[in-house]
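Reply to dn_fold:

You asked what the input looked like. This is it:
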Amino acid sequence: MTNPKPAVPAVDQAGTLPAWLYQRFNDALDAPAWDLLGDDDRTYWEHQARAVRRAVARDGFKAVDEAVIRAREIELDGGDVMLQEMSVGDPIEIEKQTGPLRPGCWVITGFECERRCRARVRRLTAEEIQAARRGEAFARTYE
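and this is what came back:
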């Protein structure tokens, strides 16, 4: 006896992607069901679904090399380091897509509020990463 293949859902039947996105990204436990959402909320999620479809059609989301991140959007060193504790010039290594930041090495270029709750960051180029690694290796050699 062979195991039957599991049912594979359709990629995006009309109207299912907005509802799925709403469910996937809504973390409020008391959030209303998709069918009970108002027109404004549905319009927002339909807009997000169109953006996802465009990204899929062009084989990926637009890559950004500069962005502004909020402190609550990013977890550093397993939550042991807070964005507010960092300084301009400090590197941040991103291991998985985090908000607009794709994996890679980023550097803080400034803060946008007194409480340091939003930071401007720039993705390091391959040359900058290699130069930093050579500098670290050189410093270790002569310690």
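The chain is about 30% helix and 15% strand.
Hope that clears it up.
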